[in-house]
Amino acid sequence: MATGQAASAHLERAVCASDGGGRMTAWLKLVPTWAYLVLGLVLAVGVQQVRVMSAQSDASKAQADLSDYRAEVSERDRRAAMAVIQENQRRQAATEKADAEAQEQLAAARTDAERAGSALERLQQRLAAAEQRSRDAGNAITAQLGQAAEDAARVRADVFGRVGEAAQLYARVADERGVAGAACERAYDAVKGN
I want to staple 109 with a disulfide (CB 3.0 to 4.6 A). Which of 59, 123, 175, 176 is the partner? Predict the structure, then answer.
């Protein structure tokens, strides 16, 4: 009870002070020290809680930004991959088209070579028929001259046949290489995008 009387006396002195500031100081003196410590601790915890909530907000915003960035990069990569696939398909189609055209040209060149070969054969047949007519004529002078002429004609026919075969070979090789070179150029231009 003595402490209760001392507290009330202390309270009376605080109330009887002359100004309002003194009353406040008196009030503060009535609150025990441990209450100030608890109040300080509550304020510190509150400040920390605000900081934690702010950090959590910043972290969730950063996660959302990272997620958006990843989605953007993923979409950009998908588009780039699709562009590469489309470009490869375009190049493949251009190459196949150039190859098909080359095959058509090569077939036409082979047909021309076959026609030239058959023309050579017809010419050789005419030469052989002319020789046969000369032999069939049967007079003595023609027979003596015919023997020499026949030998010369055989040599001519042989040389002519060999020249024709060589010409066919060179023409076929030249046509094949020419067609292949032109096809290669067209394929390159198509792949390059010209």
Answer: 175
Residues 6 or more apart whose Cβ sits within 8 Å of residue 163: none
Instruction: Decide if 116 contacts 171 (C-beta within 8 A).
Output: yes
Instruction: Give 54-93 pLDDT, tens digit per residue.
Output: 999 999 999 999 999 999 999 999 999 999 999 999 889 9
Q: Is residue 31 classed as helix, strand or coil in its secondary structure?
A: coil
Query: b vs e for 73-103, b when ≥16 Cβ sit within 10 Å of the residue's Cβ?
Result: eeeeeeeeeeeeeeeeeeeeebbeebeeebe
Q: What is the pTM of this model?
A: 0.48
pLDDT beneath 50: ranges in the chain: 1, 11, 14-19
**Would you tell me how many other CB atoms lie within 10 Å of the CB of residue 180?**
14
Q: Is 168 exposed, middle or buried (0-12, 13-18, 19+ CB in 10 A)?
A: middle
Mean pLDDT score of the chain, rounded to an integer? 79
**Closest C-alpha among 112, 120, 116 to residue 175:** 112
CA-CA-CA-CA dihedral for 7, 13, 15, 20, to nearest 10: -120
